[in-house]
Amino acid sequence: MSLLLVAALAAAPHVGSAAQWLALPPADDFTIAWGEDRGGAKVIQRIRRGETLQSWSRMIMEQSFAGAGQTDAADALSQIGAMWRSTCPGATLSAITSTPGDPGGDPGPVARISGDCPLNAQTGRPESLFAAATRSGDTLYVARIAIRRKATGDDIGWADALLSGLTICAPNSPKAICQDQ
Questions:
Q1: Phi-psi region of 137 (alpha: psi -120 to 50; beta: other; left: phi over 0)
Q2: pTM listed for this prediction
Q3: Residue 165, Cβ density class (10 Å: 0-12 exposed, 13-18 middle, ≥19 buried)
């Protein structure tokens, strides 16, 4: 990743647009390790300070897809689940669950999924996945958390707290989480 892109991401450390973006509760000691903006598709990967993209223990990935058409949150997670199964023989996945979302409208309905991979072929290690997706207007937002081991109770609680705090922010939003972004 170029230094210019890293600097741009540090100035605006979220995915989405200037009009609307995905926010998660702060994760202490995490930093942006990689990011990409390909027009309407944006991604940021965060890892713990001192870790690398090749050797990390926990990763937070935030994605936004502008112009996502009719793809809803559950469809997006179904696709993620299919990819997870195809890259990890023996992977287990939870059923996709949906919650109504924020009564204020953003996020709308939120779909969630989790899974375990007994042995990731690329790393030779187990891996656990937690993901949430929602839509706002024509943009699909996805937050994924990966843990490079079979998740413990503490890992599950940490991932749940982050994903439960998923919010879609807009400029001048009264939501505290949006003020910190």
A1: left
A2: 0.87
A3: middle
145, 130 contact by CB (below 8 A): yes
Please, are residues 63 and 15 in contact by the beta-carbon 8 Å criterion? yes
Q: pLDDT, tens digit, for every residue of 50-90?
A: 999 999 999 999 999 988 878 889 999 999 999 998 889 89
Identify which of 74, 117, 71, 112 has the alpha carbon closest to the alpha carbon of residue 94.
112
In angstroms, rounded to a whole number, what is the distance separating the alpha carbons of residues 89 and 92?
9
Which residues neighbour 31 within 8 Å (Cβ) at sequence distance 6 or greater? 46, 47, 48, 49
Helix (H) or strand (E) holding 142: strand 139-147
And the tokens for 136? 């706002």
Residue 12's Cβ-count burial label (10 Å; 0-12, 13-18, 19+) is middle
Is the distance from CB of 14 to CB of 25 less than 8 angstroms?
no
Region of 126 on the Ramachandran plot (φ > 0 left; ψ -120 to 50 alpha; else beta): beta
Per DSSP, 167 falls in state E
Helices (runs of H) and strands (runs of E) counted in the chain: 4, 10
Cα–Cα distance measured from residue 123 to residue 108, given in angstroms and rounded to the nearest whole number:
35
